[in-house]
Amino acid sequence: MSLDPDPFALNLRYACATMPSVSHFCRENGFNRQQFNRYISGHSRPSPNNLLRIAAAFDIDAASFDLSPERFREIMSKRRIPTIHHSPLEDAFPGDLVQLR
Predict the structure, then answer these.
(1) CB–CB of 79/88 below 8 Å?
(2) Which pLDDT score is estimated for 86?
(3) Distance between CA 54 and CA 32 in Å, rounded?
(4) Rounded Cα–Cα distance for residues 77 and 4 (Å)
């Protein structure tokens, strides 16, 4: 009889797949890559403070990481997508550049 994998690790891996890379995410958000790998692999969980930082970086609630993977994907699909690259157009055309394009 096998146990279901920890939804936290599965959900964190899914969230990280929306980023250019895990290394990029760690650099941008000030996380130690080796420790972050332990979170992704399910070998450890982040402290409450780090969990809040991770959730804020993905613009979701920290409790969302413990939801079923299906529900987590729904939440991720509805979140505000942060702009990764700053463009001069952002200053010239404030508002929704995705809609403008």
Answers:
(1) no
(2) 53
(3) 12
(4) 24
Q: Are 69 and 7 in contact (CB under 8 A)?
A: yes
Size of the chain, expressed as the number of residues it contains: 101
- With H, G, I as helix, E, B as strand and everything else as coil, classify residue 22: helix
- Asked if 67 and 35 count as a contact pair (C-beta separation under 8 A), the reply is no
Task: Give the Å distances, CA to CA, from 80 to 25, 41, 42, 45, 52.
Answer: 17, 26, 26, 25, 17
Residue found under tokens 């279901």: 4
- Residues 6-61: pLDDT tens digits? 899 999 999 999 999 999 999 999 999 999 999 999 999 999 999 999 999 999 99
CA 12 – CA 10 distance, rounded (Å): 6
In angstroms, the CA 2 to CA 98 distance is 44
